[in-house]
Design a protein that fits this description.
Length: about 270
């Protein structure tokens, strides 16, 4: 099986996405969408941004590589009565069946960045977006101590076997020069790309940082892999201690709950 797909189908990202709804809605609100509008949400998971986009009246297609998340997204859409929102399986680096210039907005919040083929992803996003339309990406930032997920993945990868030769880290999508190079190869000049730092919040009022880390351990593919490897190497406690220290240090929640602000790179490409 495609390892990218296997990684995300391994866990249950809906358990993590539950803490991301507030910021997902805020990101969508900040886009100022004015229907009628066709939007594509790539690496949409179970609809953290696709659902609020559809609620604003956009016609939304959510594409994700993980079949369990596509099913969870379609269930949420049906429960919410959102008839103009559909989720389907697909790969951000090869959008089969998606026509050229078919969307006013192509959005990907911590989604397409996880494809191992970043140049193909940039090319596909540009191809399917209409001239005059926008591409908006949210990407974690490497080596930024305030970018919670990049730090969590950095710790996790230190316990996981090295990736295959030539593997391009998803975190490179948080670096200006890579972003400009990738969209540049897809035909977009630098002046059309804006990159600003923004903040996402992981909010779980009823879970302590220790419980949050436990959920990452049980449900988040990359962390699950790290714990499996750490177990074989007898390093589970070390990994757990490092992740817990990170979550506690970043937590701004009060009353026993968790609220972690996480810096990300917001990329807007105007076509
Ligand atoms: C961190 S989750 C974010 C999900 C969602 N955007 C959210 O904010 O809740 C990353 C998502 O990207 C999806 N993904 C990873 N690689 C992908 C690819 N090559 N094509 C499409 N989706 C992909 C995963 O299945 C997962 O749903």
């Amino acid at each position: 099986m495609n390892p990218n797909q296997a990684l995300w189908e391994k866990g249950d990202f809906t358990q993590i996405a539950a803490w991301m709804r507030q910021s997902g809605e805020a990101v969508v609100k900040s886009l100022g969408v004015k229907p009628p509008l066709r939007a594509l949400d790539l690496g949409c998971g179970d609809g953290t941004t696709a659902v609020p986009l559809a609620r604003l009246g956009a016609e939304v297609v959510g594409i994700d590589i993980a079949r369990n998340l596509v099913a969870a997204g379609n269930k949420r859409a049906a429960e919410a009565g959102l008839k103009r929102l559909a989720f389907r399986e697909g790969d951000a680096s090869d959008l089969q069946g998606v026509g050229d210039r078919s969307f006013d907005l192509t959005l990907s919040v911590f989604g397409a960045m996880f494809s191992p083929k970043p140049f193909e992803v940039a090319k596909e996003m540009v191809r399917v977006t209409k001239p005059g339309g926008r591409i908006v990406m949210g990407n974690w930032i490497p080596n930024d101590p305030t970018s919670f997920v990049s730090q969590l993945l950095k710790i996790s990868s230190a316990f996981t076997p090295p990736p295959p030769e030539g593997f391009i880290s998803p975190m490179t999508w948080g670096v200006d020069s890579h972003i400009v190079e990738r969209f540049g190869k897809a035909g977009v000049p630098k002046e059309k790309i804006s990159m600003v730092k923004d903040t996402y919040h992981f909010v779980s009022p009823d879970k302590s940082p220790a419980q949050v880390i436990e959920s990452f351990r049980r449900f988040y593919g990359p962390t699950m892999n790290a714990f499996e490897a750490a177990e074989k190497a007898g390093k589970v406690e070390e990994l757990h201690a490092q992740l817990l220290e990170l979550a506690k240090a970043q937590n701004r929640g009060t009353g026993g709950g968790t609220s972690i602000p996480a810096t990300f790179m917001r990329v807007t490409v105007s076509l």
